């Protein structure tokens, strides 16, 4: 008997961040009014699907995104630190003008290796923790669907890994919009396909702001 399972990686909604701070894992960054509406839209669009588990990064913006969906499904939110935002040396700095502290020659030695990357958590470490969480979610929801609410860079890095692509990329070209779903489809334990959708696509700002190199969430 073929058992099909889907694990959806849901990026959180828009965050209130007028200063363009690279907030990373810092507490206190919550969804904006638009971000809350985006989370509600996701719940409206997929709240009727066969989703049995909702798992979230412990950060406020992720839990706020998970809330309406969990309520619509009548399930509890499980927190998983393995799907946290990536670590980054530039957390707390403002990238409101695009480059921010990257203009300072003193930081250039930290940008030596874009494949690792040298300025933050290594891509392979991000992939290892994300894949472990995905496999656990697949097992919990076997024969159904699970949603993991995470962050742009962990989701995108995981996709690059699954598709066998290089980690070296232009962050402006990531296909991982706010409140988007990167859906991983399994037959048994075997990954068979990836699909992508934007339930709140019509609500997106003109562009995802403040995305220098692979800095992670600042929008």
**H-E order:** EHEHEHEHEE
CATH class designation: Alpha Beta
Number of helices: 4
Taken together, the total number of domains comes to 1
Number of E-type strands:
6
Helix content: 25-40%
CATH architecture annotation? 3-Layer(aba) Sandwich
Q: How widely separated are the two ends?
A: 44 Å
- Low-pLDDT stretches are 209-216
How is this structure best described in words?
There is one protein chain. The protein has helices at residues 33-46, 60-73, 123-140, 152-162; strands at 4-11, 51-56, 77-79, 145-150, 181-187, 190-197. The N and C termini lie far apart (44 Å). The protein has a single domain (4-203), classed as Phosphoglycerate mutase-like (Rossmann fold), CATH 3.40.50. The protein contains four helices and six strands; from the N terminus they run βαβαβαβαββ. The model is unreliable at 209-216 (pLDDT under 50). With 219 residues, it is α/β, with parallel strands linked by helices. The chain is globular, with a radius of gyration of 17 Å.
Write the layout of secondary structure elements.
Elements: E1 4-11, H1 33-46, E2 51-56, H2 60-73, E3 77-79, H3 123-140, E4 145-150, H4 152-162, E5 181-187, E6 190-197
Parallel strand pairs: 1-4, 2-3, 2-4
Antiparallel strand pairs: 1-5, 5-6
Helix pairs in contact: 1-2, 3-4
Keyword list:
6 strands; 4 helices; His_PPase_superfam; Histidine phosphatase family protein; PGM_Phosphatase; His_Pase_superF_clade-1; 219 residues; alpha/beta; phosphatase activity
In short:
The chain has four helices and six strands. It is an alpha/beta fold and 219 residues long.
């Amino acid at each position: 008997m073929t058992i099909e399972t889907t694990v959806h990686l849901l990026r959180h909604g828009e965050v209130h961040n007028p200063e363009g701070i690279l907030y990373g894992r810092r507490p206190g960054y919550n969804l904006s009014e638009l971000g809350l509406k985006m989370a509600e839209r996701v719940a409206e669009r997929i709240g009727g699907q066969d989703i049995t588990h909702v798992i979230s990064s412990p950060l406020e913006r992720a839990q706020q995104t998970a809330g309406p969906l969990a309520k619509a499904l009548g399930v509890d939110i499980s927190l998983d630190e393995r799907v946290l935002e990536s670590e980054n040396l530039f957390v707390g700095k403002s990238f409101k003008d695009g480059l921010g502290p990257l203009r300072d020659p003193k930081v250039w030695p930290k940008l030596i290796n874009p494949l690792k990357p040298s300025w933050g958590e290594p891509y392979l470490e991000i992939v290892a923790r994300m894949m472990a969480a995905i496999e656990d979610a697949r097992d919990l929801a076997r024969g159904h669907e699970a949603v993991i609410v995470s962050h742009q860079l962990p989701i995108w890095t995981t996709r690059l890994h699954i598709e066998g692509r290089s980690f070296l990329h232009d962050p402006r070209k990531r296909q991982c919009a706010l409140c988007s779903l990167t859906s991983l489809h399994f037959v048994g334990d075997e990954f068979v396909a990836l699909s992508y959708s934007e339930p709140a696509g019509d609500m997106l700002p003109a562009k995802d702001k403040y995305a220098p190199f692979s800095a992670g969430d600042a929008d």
